[in-house]
Amino acid sequence: MRPDPFPDHGARQAAFAAALLDAGAPVPDGLLAPGGGPVGRRFAVHRATTTLGSIAALATRHPVLERLLGSETFADLARAFLRTNRPRTALLLDWGGGLPDFVATHPDLADWPWLADVARLEVAWNEAHHAAEAEPIELAELVAADPERVARSRLVLHPSLRLLASPWPVAGIWAANGEIEAVEARAEHMVVVRPHADVLVHPTDTAGFAFATALSAGGTILAAASAAAAIDPDFDTGAHLVGLVRLGAVVALEPVEEKDADA
Amino acid sequence: MPDVRPPAKSRPVPALPAACGVGFKPQHFEAILADAAGVAFFEVHAENYFGAGGPPHRRLTALRERFPLSIHGVGLSIGGAGPLDRDHLVRLAALVARYEPEAVSEHLAWSSHGGFGFPDLLPLPLTEETLGRVVEHVDETQAVLGREILLENPSTYFRFAESTVPEVEFLAEVARRTGCGLLLDVANVDVSATNHGFDPRAYLAAFPIERVSEIHLAGRFETVDDAGLPFFVDSHDGPVADPVWTLYRETIARIGPVPTLIERDDAIPAWEVLAAEAGRAEAVLATARARRGGERDAA
Questions:
Q1: I need a surface site. Which of A35, A182, B111, B150 has the fewest CB within 10 A?
Q2: What angle, rounded to 10 degrees, do the helices at B128-145 and B86-99 form?
Q3: How many Cα atoms are found within 13 Å in the side-chain-facing hemisphere of A200?
């Protein structure tokens, strides 16, 4: 009787997995086709499926990056990313967030320094797309509240809210969906949020971005306004607050007691 | 069967209708709400709904309000050598609790090992050792979900030299020891039969039909292997092949109507194309229902 080459399931699976991870590795021993023929093409289907499935997951998240690079270049980039960033589980929803950093440091993409931030915007968009639901407050609720009390409040921001800053006009590049000409450096600040069904990418200015950043870090409106005023002495707190509420980015006002207000 | 264990905390769950359903794709959402005549239920891949909220869940909620639902896992790795990923299982349980689907199914396959995940349904050797492990994993899954799952027969491209248990016996034994149901993928049977050179009718005749509460049908890619032998890939990217329709008709004629799903996961056509394919399965099921009704009337 022939000795069992893999008495242990774990050892068999480890060898199988290793052969999937290394395209140059030989096919694992002990795989049989009818008549004892070679199984190379048969095993290759699993190699292709695992690789193409991972690339497809990245392409789904990065449609604009794919369009900007062209699908072949995007697939090459995804393959290179995959070599050092393998999925840890079969659940690809949680995987691939490192692609923008990979793009940023990829030598072949150095002539397009804004690409990484386009990819970051796509990651933010995707996170907002899948984030939990929450009902934004109406403007009336803000208007009805005592202004002193509002100033001392923190805001519970929508769970889908993401803040993104770039030295490049990435929102425009992203919105143009690959139809771009020369790109000139121009800083852009964005609030990404999905108050209802659709993800919104909302441009803001440097001070407005500082305001939203301070609020999302848990600061009171008063504290956030002073962070914004440090950048723009004419910062209009009321207008920016109304803007965030109108955008649907605010889920609740959370009044803070006097003694905690500076916390 | 004396030692069938019911799953822990089991509670009655309404069954899928013995009619035809279609795998749900978001691009068909509007068309489905406008006209899904003749389509009796929808199935989704569990992992596509592991996010917290947003449009995927809004669509699924709307769909679930209108149709019976099947949640089909493609990444739990029930056939894995290592322990089940508890995070994955807990997220699956949360999804099942949220939507209370009529059916929950998974595969006799693995998709992660040693800290690496593979977006594929990978084959396992069929031995007493792997049988014991799959039984543990199905038991654990049913305990965490609090309900029965269906386990799907795989499509495979090669055999393992160390396999000692025929696939049908393996599935029957898992069902017997865990109390789980089976999902019979007729297209997978034909893919595996071609790839290994066995008779699909013999496989179907031996399959523990009394455990089957859903059938899958899908398209495959037909090619040849290194030696020029016919080799089918379970690609889900085209219409169900004619030989699979024949096997399906024969199976339904023998066992009666069973909830049947048309799967299409790549090269997704217009909704009307899938609805028409579902209509073809529905006609087979309607014939079986009528005959069953006739038998009842005669009795």
A1: A182
A2: 50
A3: 16
Measured CA to CA, the distance from residue A61 to residue B170 in angstroms comes to 39
Residue A162: φ, ψ to 5°: -130, 140
Residues A116, A128, A107: CA angle, nearest 5 degrees: 10
Four-point Cα dihedral A15, A21, A26, A32, nearest 10 = 60
- How many other C-beta atoms can be found within 10 angstroms of the C-beta atom of residue B260? 27
Q: Which of residues 6-65 of A touch B (CB under 8 A)?
A: 6-10, 12-14, 16-17, 20-21, 29-35, 37-43, 45-46, 49-50, 53-54, 57
DSSP state of A155: E
Give the angle subtended at the CA of B15 by the CAs of B10 and B18, to the nearest 5°.
155
From first CA to last CA, the distance across chain A in angstroms is 76
Task: Label residues B153-182 b or e (16+ Cβ within 10 Å = b).
Answer: bbbbbbbbebbebebbebbbbbbbbbbbbb
Domain B20-298's class?
Answer: alpha beta
Check CB contact under 8 Å for A31 and B233. no
Q: CB-CB: which of B54, B114, B160 is closest to A30?
A: B160
Q: What is the tens place of the pLDDT at every residue in B179-210?
A: 999 999 999 999 999 999 999 999 999 999 99
B108 near B124, Cβ under 8 Å?
yes
Q: What residues contact A197, with CB distance under 8 A and at least 6 apart?
A: B54, B55, B58
CB–CB contact B112 A89 (8 Å): yes
Chain A hits for B115, CB-CB cut-off 8 Å, are 88
Place of tokens 């607050």: A241
Structure tokens at A109: 């993409």
B242-255 and B186-196 helices, crossing angle to 10°: 120
Instruction: Kindly report, residue by residue over B209-236, the tens digit of the pLDDT.
Output: 999 999 999 999 999 999 999 999 999 9
d(CA B261, CA B225): 29
A27-86 tens-digit pLDDT: 999 999 999 999 999 999 999 999 999 999 999 999 999 999 999 999 999 999 999 999
What H or E segment, with its residue span, contains residue B185?
strand B181-185
Domain boundaries along the sequence of chain B: 20-298
CB contacts under 8 A, B 131-150 vs A, are: 133
3-state SS, residue A69: helix
What is the arithmetic mean of pLDDT over B99-104? Answer: 98
Q: Which of A198, A98, A120 is nearest to A164 (CA)?
A: A120
Q: Is B158 helix (H, G, I), strand (E, B) or coil?
A: coil
Q: What is the distance between the alpha carbons of residues B172 and B1, in angstroms, rounded to a whole number?
A: 12
Could you tell me how many residues make up chain A?
263
Q: How far apart are CA A201 and CA A172, in angstroms?
A: 10
